[in-house]
Design a protein that fits this description.
Layout lengths: L4 E5 L5 H11 L14 H7 L5 E6 L2 E9 L10 E8 L8 H15 L4 E7 L3 H9 L3 E12 L2 E11 L4
Parallel strand pairs: 4-5
Antiparallel strand pairs: 1-2, 2-3, 3-4, 5-7, 6-7
Length: 164
């Protein structure tokens, strides 16, 4: 079996695997509130097919990168807010980097000029990963969340998208 990482836009048939991935990845170290999907319909309403880039190895889905406009304003249509999740069993195998490169290509094709994201300061591995992908801090919401008895900063990061 090949270890090549493939990517594609999410499809309806991915919903179950992506819901399971969310339950494995999102905890109080990676998000201020646990993500819980009660039904597949609820998940698909928030994450419709085509709103994520899915990555896999062989038959396994091992990560995704979600993207959406930050607001409904036309003046904000050059920005994608992104979020990324990698299955714990596939972390540190290049999946995140492949997803980020796929996102940058797709964003450039669609005329997107800026990618933005939020990351908890208590997640230094994620902050380092985003920096290695070209993201820089654009702001910080100091003491934004109270998690496990501590006030945690919410770091806002961004990366320009090179236009082709």
């Amino acid at each position: 079996m090949s270890d090549a990482i493939w990517t594609r836009l999410s499809q309806m048939r991915d919903a179950g695997a992506l819901m399971e991935l969310d339950s494995l990845v999102w905890d109080n170290h990676s998000t201020p509130a646990q993500i819980v999907w009660n039904t597949k319909e609820q998940y698909l309403q928030k994450c419709p097919p085509g709103s994520q880039i899915v990555a896999g190895i062989g038959e396994d889905i091992c990560g995704y990168l979600g993207f959406d406009f930050p607001t409904p304003l036309e003046s904000n249509r050059h920005v994608y807010d992104i979020n990324i999740a990698i299955h714990p069993g596939y972390q540190r195998r290049g999946v995140g980097r492949v997803l980020m490169e796929a996102m940058k290509r797709l964003a450039a094709e669609r005329g997107i000029r800026k990618l933005s994201l939020r990351v908890l300061a208590s997640n230094p591995g994620a902050v380092a990963f985003y920096r290695s992908c070209g993201f820089v801090e654009q702001g910080r919401l100091v003491g934004e969340f109270y998690l496990d008895g501590q006030y945690i900063d919410d770091i806002l990061m961004w990366c320009p998208v090179e236009q082709s």
